[in-house]
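Lab meeting, item 3. Inverse folding demo.
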């Protein structure tokens, strides 16, 4: 069997990603869609930063660290992400028909726990 080139291997993934993006966008205007995508990227970014610090705090629990204390995150200049707004939780519910509401609720929860973000998130 002939070896596939790198571009041949990536094409199916690229097509799948475009189809997924089109499915998500549906009849939404591209100008509006960018706000949804940027919001999701922001959510993923802060969730990843939160998860990294969360794991560090779990390891330091014997020293008195509390992985669910908002002040631990504020001290490290990391946004606190409530459990129902964390990427892992949202990802686990991605196939449910309520996934749009889950993301909206996640953004609301993040704004509630991080006053500097109130009224900023899409």
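The presenter then showed the designed sequence:
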């Amino acid at each position: 069997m002939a070896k596939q080139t790198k571009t041949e291997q990536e094409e199916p993934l690229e097509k799948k990603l475009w189809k997924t993006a089109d499915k998500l966008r549906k009849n939404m205007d591209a100008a509006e869609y960018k706000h949804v995508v940027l919001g999701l990227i922001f959510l993923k970014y802060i969730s990843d930063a939160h998860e990294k610090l969360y794991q560090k705090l779990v390891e330091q629990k014997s020293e008195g660290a509390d992985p669910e204390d908002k002040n631990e995150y504020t001290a490290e200049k990391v946004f606190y992400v409530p459990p129902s707004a964390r990427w892992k939780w949202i990802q686990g519910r991605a196939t449910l028909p309520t996934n749009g509401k889950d993301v909206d609720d996640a953004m609301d929860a993040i704004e509630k726990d991080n006053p500097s973000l109130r009224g900023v998130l899409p």
